[in-house]
Amino acid sequence: MPMTAFARDERNALADALLAAGPDAPTLCEGWATRDLAAHLVLREHRPDAAAGIMLKAVAGHTQKVQDSLAAGDYAALVQRVRKGPALLRPFDEAMNVVEFFVHHEDIRRAAPEWSQRPIPQPYSQSLAKNAKRTARLSARRFPARIEVSGPDVEPFTVNPKQERAVSISGAPGELVLFFSGRQSSAEVSITGPDDLTEKLRGARLGI
């Protein structure tokens, strides 16, 4: 597949899910309905003046005002902006957006009363596996134990290899991406190890 196919296809699937759910459906993002999630996605790509507040608390107030303004607008037009994306960033779509779009697509799907895992084509699964490794090593770098990660299509890897105590986690690549993006309670993974560590990992503040 072309380099940007995964991000492009996930962008379209995410936009489809936003439209199907409507503007006021719940998501896994605490306090956000689908209109808020769509506004976040548009802000992130189209409003660099406000996007800094996603990561920096000092300017988070401005970010929230811009996001609220976007969310209050026409929902179908907002979703169309998500689907189209900014032309200038298309060469970077794969690097910037595969994890972002996959996770937020699942934020919509898994907030519904009934959901099931969707089939992931193997090439996409392999891409998610690489992203799971990067996401885990960044989001769990302060966890006070070694984390041994494995699963189908996942080359085993270790987070925090110098730690003495250890916990193991296994799951499909997409489930690992979700887990290490802070969606532990919604990710279908298996965790083994000392009870205190498994409980701590499930409740850890993960995410980038």
Automatic annotation (TrEMBL):
This is TIGR03085 family protein. SUPFAM superfamilies: DinB/YfiT-like putative metalloenzymes. Residues 8-122 form the Mycothiol-dependent maleylpyruvate isomerase metal-binding domain. It comes from Dactylosporangium matsuzakiense. GO terms for molecular function: metal ion binding. InterPro entries: CHP03085 (IPR017519), DinB/YfiT-like (IPR034660), Maleyloyr_isom (IPR017517), MDMPI_metal-binding (IPR024344). It comes from the Bacteria.
